[in-house]
Amino acid sequence: MDLYTYSPIIDRPTLTWPNGARVAFYVGLNVEHFLPGKPSTSIWPGTSTLVPDPLNHGWRDYGTRVGIWRMMDALDRHGVRASVLLNSMVPAEYPQIIEAGRARDWAWLAHGRTNSVLHNGFTLEEERAELTGIVETITSAVGHRPSGWMGPGLTETPNTPELLAELGLTYVLDWTNDDQPYPLNVPGMLSMPYTVELNDLMLKVPGPEFVRMVRDQYEVLSAEGGRVMSLALHPFVTGQAFRAKYFDQALEFLAAQPDVWLTTTDEIAEHYLRTQP
């Protein structure tokens, strides 16, 4: 079975968002734990295979020590609740982040165990046990079961969506091929828009250019209507001081637009399931 069926956006009914909004906007905040001594996301690959690798591990570690708290201030200032892509190792490693996110009623999505290990290479039963452990750990930490999934590095196996549905999850973010949610060919499972373009790991642009890109994205999606706009962000990147001020400016712009629904992936999925046949 193919995971999804081709569906050109021009052939679909127009989506409507609450209060007449034309754009549903969310911040996908990647809150991750990286294993010391294991190559992962790096700012300079030259040392990524060394043990220890202070250059790259320290860069990643900045996000949980400093960057996320700076980003949290901006989110609070503009009334934006994060949709957190959460490694299940985070609650044990950084409990203060979980406490702060719970106080803000963030949406929590399962994001694998650690971003030092991609989600692949499992047998069916191995993956069932792995996903069960991830979901149960996050549920215990945040107080409710996650509804969404994004794999570390947007990785899945052919069985992942079906196993997630067994566990009661309703959507995945790994397939970045649309501006609207759409049903997968797995009963009860949606694909939710996510971005690898407005994604701080991919963007190597000055801060003012980042704000311009956010404005341009909004303007086109607003003109089309019934679209989802996401920002995919990492605290060790956008939480850097010289970038954080532009993140704040981007949120200020979007929060001021009367046709933007500031929301979370959970709320988008719930609205879609409630309003679409």
From TrEMBL:
InterPro entries: Glyco_hydro/deAcase_b/a-brl, NODB_dom. Residues 61-172 form the NodB homology domain. It holds the Pfam family Polysacc_deac_1. SUPFAM superfamilies: Glycoside hydrolase/deacetylase (SSF88713). This is Polysaccharide deacetylase family protein. It comes from Kibdelosporangium lantanae.
